């Protein structure tokens, strides 16, 4: 199963990310995982929230252009080379990993990462076949 990721583009100026965080926090939305990538003028913020629908609505109400994307929340072993358990089966299946970033908590004693791929349904099947634990909507409340 997949989870919903929210993406917004922000001007690359002081306070923009703080404003997004404040809008969400004021409305009781908790960010569970986050990634920020910048260019010279724009930052792309990708995140998973405990209530993705509410997060999208809050940001839209403040004038942000919001994009919702399906991503995979997957457990990865916590040892040197542990990412291989996730990345190798995807590579072997010719599935492109577009980006990944850490989940800000733990559901088990292993870390969880958020992975954006080009073929999500295939990726889920491959990971489950290789005994990699993926999370569905329960990730929102972990």
Task: Write a short abstract of this structure.
The chain is an alpha+beta fold. It contains four helices and seven strands; from the N terminus they run βαββαβαββαβ.
What can you tell me about this protein's structure?
This protein has 142 residues and is an alpha+beta fold. It folds into 2 domains: 3-68, 2-Layer Sandwich (VC0802-like), CATH 3.30.2130.10; 71-137, Alpha-Beta Plaits, CATH 3.30.70.260. The chain is built from 4 helices and 7 strands; from the N terminus they run βαββαβαββαβ. Strands 1, 2, 3, 4, 5, 6 and 7 form a 7-stranded antiparallel β-sheet that branches.
Strand content is 25-35%
Helix- and strand-based class? alpha+beta
- SS element count, helices: 4
Predict the CATH topology of the largest domain: Alpha-Beta Plaits
Secondary structure topology:
Blueprint: E1 3-11, H1 16-26, E2 31-38, E3 42-49, H2 52-61, E4 66-75, H3 84-92, E5 97-102, E6 112-117, H4 120-129, E7 134-135
Antiparallel strand pairs: 1-3, 1-4, 2-3, 4-6, 4-7, 5-6
Primary descriptors:
7 strands; Alpha-Beta Plaits; 28% helix; alpha+beta; 4 helices; elongated; 2 domains; 142 residues; VC0802-like; 7-stranded antiparallel sheet
């Amino acid at each position: 199963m997949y989870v919903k990721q929210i993406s917004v583009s922000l001007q690359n100026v002081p306070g923009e990310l703080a404003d997004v965080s404040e809008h969400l926090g004021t409305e009781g939305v908790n960010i569970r995982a986050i990634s920020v990538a910048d260019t010279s003028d724009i930052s792309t913020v990708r995140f998973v929230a405990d209530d993705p629908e509410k997060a999208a609505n809050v940001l839209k109400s403040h004038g942000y252009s919001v994009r919702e994307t399906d991503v995979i929340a997957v457990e990865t072993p916590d040892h040197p080379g542990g990412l291989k358990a996730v990345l190798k089966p995807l590579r072997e299946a010719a599935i492109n990993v577009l980006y990944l970033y850490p989940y800000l908590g733990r559901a088990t004693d292993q870390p969880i990462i958020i992975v954006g791929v080009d073929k999500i349904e295939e990726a889920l099947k491959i990971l489950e076949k290789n005994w990699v634990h993926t999370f569905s909507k329960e990730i929102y409340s972990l």
